[in-house]
Structures
1.
Amino acid sequence: MTLWSVIGAGVAGLAVASELVSRGARVQVFDPGGPPGPHGCSWWAGGMLAPWCEYENAEEPVLRLGQEAIEWWAQRTDVRRCGTVVVASARDLPDLRRFARRTEEFAEVDREKIIKLEPDLTGFGKGLYFEREAHVDPRQALRDLYRQLQNQGVEFHRKLAPAQLKNAIDCRGLHAREYLHDLRGVKGEMLVIRCPDVELTRPVRLLHPRMPLYIVPRGDGVYMLGATMIESEDSSRITARSMLELLSAAYAVNPAFGEAEVLEIGVDLRPTFPDNLPRIRRLGRTIYANGLYRHGYLLAPALARGVADLALDNTHSEMVDEDRD
Amino acid sequence: MKTFYGTALSNPLMLGTAQYPSPAILEQAFRESGAGVATVSLRRESGAGQTFWNMIRELGVLILPNTAGCHTVKEAVTTAHMAREVFETRWIKLELIGHTDSLQPDVFQLVEAARILTEDGFQVFPYTTDDLIVGERLLEAGCEVLMPWGAPIGSGRGLNNEYALRAMRAEFSDIPLVVDAGIGLPSHAAHAMELGYDAVLLNTAVARAGDPVLMSKAMAQATLAGQLAHQADPIEARDMAEPSTPVVGKAFLS
């Protein structure tokens, strides 16, 4: 039986390995960084499974393919299905109207309904509620996949994959750049804060023409604030401007965030193709699966399905854009 | 036709390159609209945006780097120098923000920065208000183009003060003028061109439209329509109907 070698143990690699194993394939995984951790950009993700909200500024495949993510993850980790609330300050209501026009599957909510959903969102007169959306704790999701794969007999090698590997599936994100010339990095910056004074149970998006923000609850008063999107490939630091914008947007959602402790500052580059959609390419004996951009958890299941279709059944899903020896 | 520091534009639409859903859509918007100039911001992440800037270069249109996001003369001058190196052009769209909320230009610093940059060999495209005296000061500082706002950046409100823009056109009849900022609809772009402006510069109206590519085409066609209309010498509006067929012989006085 063919042994498939997945290279890279971020969300793409682990999802591909998990999908292959669930279809009965034999898999091993290479990652010199070891188990999931801060060396992978999916460690810093928001973990929102929000295909309807994301459609505001994405193309149709994100909406359609993203919808399979919730069930896929629910079979593997704890998925919190409590929807998304989208709000805007009174002066930015045109942005809320635009968001509503560009998305679907939401209910319009007024002040009373917003407070009923989230008692600590007191400052907003209008909002949108995307009931069908969900979120995961991304780090827990990675750990769960990793543990399940180990239990299923997948061997993890804490080293670089040997050269000339047969049946390789390269899921290394931006590290695969030398083989994927049209891949670029899009910088994202995020913060993890602790603020027990604010209780939010579901992701909240604050619309703003220049500094849109999302807040994802991680439980126990911990929140992830994200995320900037900058066409830059310098992941060495967060800028003061980005930090100011993230924190002042959170402060606008609820001034009690002003008292939060800053636990973590995350900066990394999202591997991205020119149309911001993921790709699968078979070049010789390696299949490349890459370009999840800001949709790591949302599109990894569809990416994994496409890789398994190509590897095991030799069928081309829509993500396959090149297949040659 | 007026030229921009000696360069004639193939198309009087200048498009910004920020906020598109993806670089692929940005590229299509340029291709479908035939926009003649691409503005690009350098302020954020100095030096690390090479991949994105290469994509802009590959559009094959004239590049007008800008100092978007600069609040001081020093920042703007530094950014302009970086832009000259990155894009190998003397053109710079000089933007000096005076107010973070309205993004209104700080015209006092603008004049100062324009003087410094012009003396340094730059060809400055100043983003300014519709104030005539500021316009004069910018020309004295060495600018050969003026770019008054239609309305605040990103507001999509169109030409807020048509009277002032007309006055500007009349006052600076030999100077290439561009309406920069505030355009939300193709009718706004056509309006600016009908007033005799030489180009329009916009970004948000296209990038944040539901279908940016379609909107870029609409903007290009409207810009061209407005330009043709201006050249065609439109009729004057009047209070009374003027029949286009003779009325002699009809009982029109009854």
2.
Amino acid sequence: MSAPTLERTAPDEAALQAHFNATIAADHRVEPRDWMPDGYRKTLIRQIAQHAHSEIIGMQPEGDWLLAAPSLRRKAILLAKVQDEAGHGLYLYSAAETLGADRADLTDKLIERKQKYSSIFNYPTLTYADVGVIGWLVDGAAICNQVPLCRSSYGPYARAMIRICKEESFHQRQGYELLLTMMRGTAEQRAMVQDAVDRWWWPSLMMFGPPDADSPNSAQSMAWGIKRHSNDELRQRFVDMTVPQAEVLGVTLPDPELALDLATGRYRFGAIDWDEFKRVLAGGGPCNDERIARRRAARDDNAWVTEAATAYAARHDGGRAAGEPA
Amino acid sequence: MSDVTAEGGHGAVPTGPEVPVQPRRAAVRRDWPLYEVFVRGKRGLNHVHVGSLHAPDDEMAIDAARDLYTRRNEGVSIWVVRAADITASSPDEKDPLFAPSGDKVYRHPTFYEIPDDVPHM
């Protein structure tokens, strides 16, 4: 006698949508095998993939200084930081895969320039002060963006962000400490810090994206609980946090219009050059080609390692070998 | 311009519909299989799921999990299991699988009224 089969009738889409809406409204987390609207899934894949790509490409500007670190202490710190960026990329690819994306496919889309990464990593690191300024300003801006994402409505993304935020705190502090050390050094070292701040300040503000008025899809992301604060709100928060830090450091932020608004207690700042932002994002930054070429080389030149490990596993792992269809 | 959002964490990137996404694409053959990773944070605690990674075999999955998920003493023990080998219920709380326990309140200690003057209960 055969066992009775359990037939589950497919609930209609309206009921599924209503259940999804209720989950979001209650501020509960959506988990991978839950039903979710197609737009929610695609928005998350885009956002998480591009975040992952940014972490992976972000290894390059600082990685350029690994062999030229001024001391063993700084080299150990920088190695740990660059390794963290790789880890962050992998946590995020892992989150994207829970949505049905494929890591190798996302990497291909990055290399083929179909998906983008943050414009900030298309600027060069000219001196060791840049390593400090990236930690302070770029990772500081990233923290402003990322802390609210720890409460993102998609569970795996929020959990990845919690791990990442813990580690970003080390990134920002090591950068600021590096700069403090240089500012206590020679006049030449102080000039290096100021020069790096002058080059990275505006691109750091661009990291938050265009003004809210030019960000038409943000409202949907906010409604879905993927995004928690608007671009302008986060940018303002970053400026308010950073100005006092610059004062302690003893550097000048390159904006003559930067001033405290006594009525609001917040800092007013000058106009951002959005043409530069668009140009860099579209591929016209100083290092776009170099970054992609290096990522492509890492994939292609190391393909033999992937294949060799797969072949080894096939020989030693019997029928469960890598590369076999699951 | 297309929608650009800061919610890419490290900075603003386009997230408009022109960016291709393809959920549920067939796995690319040259990538290694997916492993789920579980870490015991310290003695006395259960292993907890922390994420996933790709590795060619079980042994390298453990090595990669060490590097990826325990760079700061987050664990004393790691389990890895091929994602394809996991059988899961649906996590949806309205799933009929969990319905039978929903109405059995007598399985909880608070169901029973005991006079206040009964000690140690």
